[in-house]
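Appendix B. Extra example for self-study. Work through it before the problem class; the solution is given directly after the inputs so you can check yourself.
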Amino acid sequence: MLQFLLKRLLQAMLVMSIISIACFAIQDSLGDPTRELAANSISSEERELLREELGLNDSTIIQFGRFIGRAVQGDLGNSYFFKEPAMTVILKKLPATLELSFAASILIIVISIPLGVFTAIRPRHWFSRLTMAISVIGISIPVFLTAIGLIFIFSVTLGWMPSFGRGETVEMWGYWNSNFFSGDGLLHIIMPAVALSSIMLPLFIRLVRAEMLEVLSTEYVKFARAKGLSSYKVYMKHALKNTMLPVITVGGVQIGIMVAYTILTESVFQWPGMGFMFLEAVNRSDIPLITAYIMFVGFLFVVVNTLVDLLYGVINPMVDLVGGNQ
Amino acid sequence: MSQQQISNASSRWQRIKQSDLFYYFSRDKVAIVSSVVFLILATLAILSPLIAPFDPYDLRQLDLMDSELPPVWIEDSDSRFLFGTDDQGRDLWSTILYGMRVSLLIGIFAVLFQGTIGITIGLVSGYMGGKVDSILMRIADVQLSFSTLMVAIIVLAIVKSAFDGETYSSWAMVILILVIGLSEWPQIARTVRSSVLAEKEKEYVDAAHVMGFGSVRIMFKHILPNCLSPIFVISTVQIANAIITEAALSFLGLGMPVTEPSLGSLISIGKEYLFSGSWWITLIPGLFLIVIVITINLMGDFLRDVYNPKLYKD
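Solution. Structure tokens for the complete assembly:
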């Protein structure tokens, strides 16, 4: 177990260092901090002096060391546009993105598990066929089109739903602005969450269905049936529990992947989260903010994936933790 | 000579007709309908310069007086414009035809590129085994865990900041093909590797070893031809994925420029006009995009069912 833990941590650190080398290279070749500190009017000697003062003429290795040193302390440079530390900007936008992903995850769990179980238990039922057909179509519709479609139907045509922004939020602990505690906030989060979950739903329904089908064909389920247990008990108590293991692990990784789709959803709904901020930063060529976002998201991915891997190793005794060399 | 060619051609047709693939195909209505729809759309896209009533890339043909005209079945429309016009007075039907061509081209070339990388890495990884295999597959795992869309968005964002706008626009198509190809290779590499692992144990590989052939020759000439069917299946699905990714990137403003729009950039242009009532600029290209992707995905499903008899449909 310890060996597995070390291996995973080592890999996580390797990935993080590759990401930081890439970010440093971007900042080094594209970002010019003197542009941020001084207007174009200063003379080239003054600029040179400034460069010397900031240590921009030091060797690349020394500069990289300084970059890492600052990054570990959470200092990823100042955003050109916001005139604030990039990390502060990101942390301000983080709650909006996390709440959106959270709402979408809840929708996915609540919808995909019952549908997946039903389609596995009654594969020939018309409702199962319909669900599977819709899931093929659903996987073919890009998330931004779902979002635009929702806006067109519910905001433009029917006028029921707000089409952009977070609406009224409730401040908690002096930092976190939440959508979940006001009617207006809840109304605003519904469509973005539905759009975001739409891309993952077909995948999860198929996953739950496939796992459930596999479990249903095992000996112990047949035995439970032969024992005369009610089919409800067989399905819910015996089969579903063992279906959940792979669903949780795949789900963990997929929810990490959802970060990429939040960029699309946030841009359609002008949701003031990290993804929307990132796109604006790209359009403004705000290099420190771009690299800070990449570092932050990279860190998030690495942490989530490492945790999911560890969790899987802990709950599933069949996994060979260290990999065939024992 | 010519006689022989004709008989060759007819025997090839015979072989196709007698193959399992054709047999299943002729009995699968979904596969027939989707491939017919796809072929029609693809033909329209390829022939777009001949069919399209206007040239959407030619700025001289644009007239701002024609902007935001609705499709012909709605009042106040102009019979010259079948699906109406966009914000600059471009004929939407012509722009969709050209846009489909761009989307399909990027999709197909991105898959060819990722196929080249993925097949090579998958073959080497599966055939060599050991350290090489575990390093290559860890890289693939890590890249997959980051989600291909995320990788593509970030790389394009950086490339876009590095180039000035005009250079970027003129190279957008090549850049998109390279970025999508590079970010999706692990999908194909994994598929190839797993079938190589199965093929490697077979006797014909041993025979080739005994005959003294080199590794490269065995990998590409002996093992690869036997791994083609799973590659075929996954490439079909990957074309659909590449088209969606391209549309998403263009939608975010990181892909094709508005002067040479793909379906994604058209949708993104039209989004601004959704609230002023000009829904057709977004929704009609969106519909074409969905139909293309669905037909490709359905064909992929069909191929998978044929090549994987173990997985029954229900």
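Self-check: Strands of chain A lie at 170-172, 176-178. If your reasoning did not lead you there, revisit section 3.
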